[in-house]
Amino acid sequence: MDIGTIITIVIASAIVIAAVSGFVIVRYKIKKFSRAVFGTDSLIEGINGTKQNQEMMRETPRSLHGMTSVYLPMIKKDFPEFEYELYRSKANSLLRSYFNAVASKQVSLIAEETSLTLKNNTQGIIDDLNSQNVTQNFDEINLYDTQIARYIKNGKTVSIVFETAVGYYSYVTDSDGKVVFGSRENKMQTVYEVELVYIQDADSIKSQVTALGINCPNCGAPIKNLGEKFCEYCGTGVQEINIRAWKFDSIKEQTLQKRQF
Question: 0.70 cut: is pTM over it?
Answer without folding.
Answer: no
